[in-house]
């Protein structure tokens, strides 16, 4: 039996996606243009997020229908694979750590870095954006402007992530992310940033591939390893772009 709250939540997510489509199309295309240009020029693509924000950036990595060239940036303590998980909340506020993570990565001038942070206020992604600017790395930010513009930055520079990145995409979600209310409970339930964020970033990948095809370049895209020929095709892609792939160990 369908629950009315499920219907309301699904409807709300659809409303947010519709708002993204109405208001963020230019930003999505700008991000795609930057990525397509980088791929055509032989550059590298990277993605980073802390805590649950990392889920959307990892969605882009080693993914059926996704770009072979997107490399995740990861660091101890900022992902959800640590215990106690509360450590991630403390680590994403650690001054200087974002710059260290970027310095220890292969990212270089001319590359592109996707940064996902819903609040846009924590120190690690802001430090990473600042260090990226120093190194000549172009940045794409996915954030929630309703939240980020209403709360203070935790970084000493006083700026939020959206104020530091070249291309800014608003996920158009609710203040504080959790979206739904129910009778008898004062809090909010059911976030939207992961569902919407994954759709937005996959749309960026899609438009990147459109631009590559229009330029006469075969998009380096993974196919499912569960369909006939998938393993062989993916192996060819990994070999062809081995100079731009840093997640194979």
Account of the protein in words:
The chain is an alpha/beta fold. It has a single domain (4-244), classed as 3-Layer(aba) Sandwich (Rossmann fold), CATH 3.40.50.10490. It has helices at residues 4-23, 25-40, 53-59, 87-91, 97-103, 123-135, 145-148, 193-214, 230-240; strands at residues 45-49, 70-72, 112-116, 138-143, 167-170, 178-182, 185-191. The strands form two sheets. Strands 2-1-3-4-5 form a five-stranded parallel beta sheet, with helices on both faces. A two-stranded antiparallel ribbon has the order 6-7. α3 runs parallel beside α8. The longest helix is centred in the last third of the chain and has 22 residues, at 193-214. It is globular, with a radius of gyration of 18 Å. The termini are far apart.
Provide keyphrases for this structure.
two-stranded antiparallel sheet, 249 residues, 9 helices, 42% helix
Give a brief description:
The protein has 249 residues and is of the alpha/beta class. It has 9 helices and 7 strands, in the order H-H-E-H-E-H-H-E-H-E-H-E-E-E-H-H.
| Shape verdict | globular
Going by helix content, strand content and strand pairing, the class is alpha/beta
Tally of extended strands?
A: 7
CATH topology, what is it called? Answer: Rossmann fold
Radius of gyration from the alpha-carbon trace, in angstroms: 18 Å
The proportion of residues forming helix, as a percent range, comes to: 40-55%
Query: How far apart are the first and last residues' alpha carbons, in Å?
Result: 47 Å
Beta-strand residue fraction: 5-15%
Biggest sheet strand order reads 2-1-3-4-5
Compute the average pLDDT: 96
Sheet of most strands: 5 strands, parallel
Task: Supply the number of helical segments.
Answer: 9
Helix and strand sequence = HHEHEHHEHEHEEEHH
Count of spatially separate domains: 1
């Amino acid at each position: 039996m369908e629950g009315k709250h499920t219907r309301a939540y699904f409807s709300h997510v659809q409303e947010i996606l519709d708002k993204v489509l109405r208001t963020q199309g230019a930003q999505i295309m700008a991000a795609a243009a930057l990525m397509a240009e980088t791929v055509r020029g032989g550059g590298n693509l990277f993605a980073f997020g802390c805590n649950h924000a990392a889920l959307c950036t990892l969605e882009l990595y080693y993914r059926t229908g996704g770009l072979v060239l997107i490399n995740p940036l990861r660091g101890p303590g900022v992902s959800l694979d640590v215990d106690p998980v509360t450590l991630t909340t403390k680590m994403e506020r650690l001054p200087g750590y974002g710059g260290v993570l970027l310095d220890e990565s292969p990212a270089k001038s001319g590359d592109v870095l996707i940064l996902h942070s819903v609040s846009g206020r924590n120190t690690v992604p802001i430090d990473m954006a600042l260090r990226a600017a120093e190194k000549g790395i172009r940045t794409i930010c996915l954030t929630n402007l309703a939240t980020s513009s209403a709360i203070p930055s935790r970084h000493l520079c006083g700026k939020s992530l959206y104020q530091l990145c070249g291309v800014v995409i608003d996920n158009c979600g609710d203040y504080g992310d959790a979206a739904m209310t129910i009778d008898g409970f004062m809090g909010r339930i059911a976030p939207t940033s992961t569902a919407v964020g994954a759709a937005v970033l996959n749309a960026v990948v899609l438009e990147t591939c459109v631009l590559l095809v229009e330029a006469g370049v075969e998009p380096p895209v993974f196919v499912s390893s569960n369909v006939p020929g998938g393993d062989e095709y993916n192996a060819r892609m990994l070999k062809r772009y081995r100079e731009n792939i840093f997640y194979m160990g």
